[in-house]
Each structure stands twice: as structure tokens, then as C-alpha cells.
Amino acid sequence: FAGLADVSISEDIPVEGEITVPVGSHSPDEDFSTLDEPVRDTIMRDLKAVGKKFVHVMYPKKSSALLRDWDLWGPLVLCVSLALMLQGGSADSKDDGGPQFAEVFVIIWFGAVVITLNSKLLGGTISFFQSLCVLGYCVLPLTVAMLVCRLVLLAGSGTVSFIIRLIVVVAMFGWSTLASTAFLADSQPPNRKALVVYPIFLFYFVISWMILTFTPQ
Amino acid sequence: AGPGTMSASGAAAGGGRSGTAAEWGGFEDNMQGGGSAVIDMENMDDTSGSSFEDMGEMHQRMKEEEEEEEGEAGAAEEEDGEFLGMKGLRGQLGRQVADQMWQVGKRQASKAFSLYANIDILRPYFDVEPVQVRARLLESMIPVKMISFPQKIAGELYGPLMLVFTLVAILLHGMKTSDTIIREGTLMGTAIGTCFGYWLGVSSFIYFLAYLCNAQITMVQMLSLLGYGLFGHCITLFVTYNIHFHSLFYIFWLGVGGLSTLRMVAVLVSRTVGHTQRLILCGTLAALHMLFLLYLHFAYHKVVEGILDTLEGPNMPPFQRVARDIPVVSNAVLNTTAKAIALTL
């Protein structure tokens, strides 16, 4: 080793590193610890998150909770319940209720995807699933309107009931549009808000129209 | 100080290596096996931080392992073939690291490409302001007078896309109020298929004709032109689906539909040279555009038969009692349509 006597490490470069190697793999995130909790806790936590988002939709303040932890459970539940309630309103009794359910499902999800792509193309800063989440959750007022319409239709289907349904649906449509605009328009450049709001308006208009023209058999 | 320095550098190298292994340890689950065995760092633990002689011993051990592997691996020759080139790089560990890096890099690159390539291609066509959209909507109803030099067409897709969706919504409304029964498929599917099919199909067809007739127009411009031409359709259908008077529809058809057709025709004429070519191109576009509006009205329009009977008496010509089922059209309708077209041309 005599020839290697002049090789040395410079004082500036710190020698560092882990000498001990961890045995076994340690998971990078700590969420795996939730694997041990009872199922009820997991479900309740998710339900509480969904419920909190429902409250955010009904009282739209400019909070980022809806955007930060997005989830698609709420939209799925709303979409399925709306589609189920809209079923059975076909004009011909020979038609099965199949296409109606698929229609509503496809309208909601396809429409939400198109609006998201549109807002991204216009220069929005929101991510794909966040936008889907917001649009899905803002269907809540319209689902409530559908429920009210069904109840009103149980009572009768005359002009008075039509007027009541019209008022309720229009009010909920306005609420939906305002709620989703409050969340989504912030992520757009300020002079293009109208360009993003119009498709949202059209989207909820189509859904409201389907609710209003629903007549049970 | 010689051996001391050596062990220090050995420790540094060994520590560096195990540090690297710990870094890449997170990707272990992404390894698809390949041909190499996953290195068990517990065994390496004995040799890391040790002196130079042990490193040499370790290298020797790895070489022996590789020779064993070579002997066994008859079937996995292709995979080993890849790794043989890496033998120079510290053997198995180098192989693993390089393989992981390549896979991660490839995955990221393909993800980035598929995500960004798709959206960014369309981004320049959506670069509009609301004022511009409104101006273009109004302009689409005003035929230009100057056809001696090519008119400018904005290659924008936001306005046309929104107009097509608006048309879909209006069509849905019309279908719902007319109780159209679609046996195979859904209302929504029919509406979307009709509107998008018209927009994309007729645009492509006219673009093809323009290519044949040497007209100066690109595909995006054609899509944009036809899309904005649907504004007239939207207005007409919106009004006439709610107010069910046939004479009103004909007035709107000629007036509003005619204006938007004239605008499109004028723009195309300004970009085409030669009388025959202009005639072919503009005749086709005008015919398709006007016929589409006619089709949309008659196919999805509810005839309030009872009211019409009481209002207009029993002398109604049969063609007005049209079509809950599409597209059964009687001779009278064809005659009237032909007359109407003759009037416009």
C-alpha cells in the first residue's frame, strides 16, 4: 500500500451516508397504519369527508377543501340516485328503463369530462379529477330538486304542480351553477371566466331539463 | 496512515453504495424480475464498510455467481443478453440500478407524451376571449360583400364546439317535447350523433371538395366556418321548437338559415377561383346546410295535431301531419321542399 499513501480525502467534502442498512422494506408513507383499524372507522372517515363536501356545496364559500382532497364517491352516489329517480319516466310503457339510466349516467360523466377538458384547454390550473369532483358534487342541489319533484308529482300533476316544480328546479339549477362557478372560476384567468361558465351552465341546464320534463308512468 | 485512509475510503464507497441501494429500494416492487436476482442487502452488510481486501473478495463472489447464472440460464438468454453488457458496471448491482432507471425513465416519458401531446395539440385553437366569440357569432349572420379577395377565417374551435353542444341541448329539448321514441339507442346518443356527425362529416366532405376545386381553406378553418354557421340553426330551432307554427318555421328557415348560409358561401367564393368550382362548392354547402335545418325541424318536431285541427279546420294538406317516426316523408313534403330550394337558389 505504499504507493497509495498520498491518496487522501479533501477536508471540504463531507463523508456521509448510511452505514447501517435497514432490514426489510419500510413503506414510504405512514397511511399503511390504517390497515389495522376496524372497518367501521374507515367507512365513517370516508362518509364524514363526503358529508363535509356536501355541506360545502350547499353553502358555497371560497374554501379549498373541496379541491384539496377530491374524491369521486359523492358524485357517484349522486349520479346513481339521480339516474334511479329519473328512471321510469318514459313515454311508451313498452320501453324498458334501461336507456334512461344509461342516458343520465353518460350525460353527467361525459359532460363533466368535456367541461374539464375545456377548462384545461382555456388555461385553467385545476387538475382533471379535482374538476370532476367539483362538478359531480354540485349535482347535489339538482338531486334534491328531483326528490322534491317526485314528491310533488305524487300529489298530482296539474298546472300548480308544474309551477312549483318549475320554481324549484330553476332555483336549484341556479344554485348548482353558482356553486360550481365559485369553485372552478377561480382557477381560470380572470378575463375568460365567461368562457368556462357557459359550458357549466349548459350542462346543468340539460340535467335540469331532464328533471323538469320527467313524468312518471 | 495508509491503511486507515484506505478503510475510510472503503467505508465511504460502501456507505455510498448502500445509500444508493436504500434510495432505489423504493422501486423494488417495480422490478419485473428480469433475469437478475434481487440483491439481498443483508448479505452485503457484512462487506460494506470493510477494507479493500473484502471488496475484492466480494467482486470475486459476484463473478462466480454470474458464471453460475450463465451456466443455468439457457431459456432466459435474451434477458441475460441485455445484462451481459452491464457486467462491467459493478456486476449485479449496476445491472439492477440501470434497469430500474431505464424502466422509470421510459414510463415517465410515455406518460408525459400521452398526456401532454394530446391536450397541447388543441390548446392554440382555444385561445379566445369572450369578446371575440361574441363578435364572431354576430359576424356569422352577416354575409360579406367583398368577394374579390380572400376573407379571413379565424381557426378557432371553442365557439364551434360550444355551438354544437348548444344544438345538442336544443335538439334534446325538441325530442323530449315531441315524445320521439328511439327504439335502438338513446335520445342523447341520437342527438350527439346527429350534431357531431353533421359538423365533422360535412366539414370533411366540403374540405375534400375544396381540395378538388382548389379552394384556399384548411380543415380547421372549415370546421370553424361550419361551426359558426350552426348559430343560425340554433336560433331557428330554439324558437320554432317552442312556437309550433309552420309558416314561422319557413320564415326562419329562409331568413336566418339563409343568412348564415350566404355568409359561408360568400367566404368560400372569395377563396375559390373559377365559376364551375365556385358553383360546385357553394351549391353543395348551401344545399346541405339548408337541408339539415329542414331535417332537424321535421324529424324531431311535435305536431300538435289536435290544436292544428281546431285552428285551421279540416282542409289541411296532408303533408303537415308529419312524422313522429323518422324519416317517413310524403311526396307532398318532397315537392314543397324542392320548391323552397328552387326559391333560394
Key traits:
heterodimer, A: 217 residues, mainly alpha, 8 helices, elongated, B: 345 residues, 13 helices, 70% helix
Describe it:
Chain B: Residues 65-82 have a biased composition (Acidic residues). Chain B: It is a multi-pass membrane protein. Chain B: The chain crosses the membrane at residues 157-175, 187-213, 225-244, 250-270, 279-300. The complex is a heterodimer of chains A (217) and B (345). Chain A has helices spanning 39-58, 65-68, 73-86, 98-121, 128-137, 140-155, 159-184, 193-212. Chain A is built from eight helices and no strands. The longest helix of chain A is centred in the C-terminal third of the chain and has 26 residues, at 159-184. Chain A has a domain at 67-86 and 96-211. With 345 residues, chain B is an all-alpha fold. Chain B has a domain at 159-312. The longest helix of chain B has 32 residues, at 91-122. The radius of gyration of chain B is 36 Å and the shape is elongated. Chains A and B meet through helix 4 and helix 8 of A and helix 1, helix 2, helix 7 and helix 8 of B.
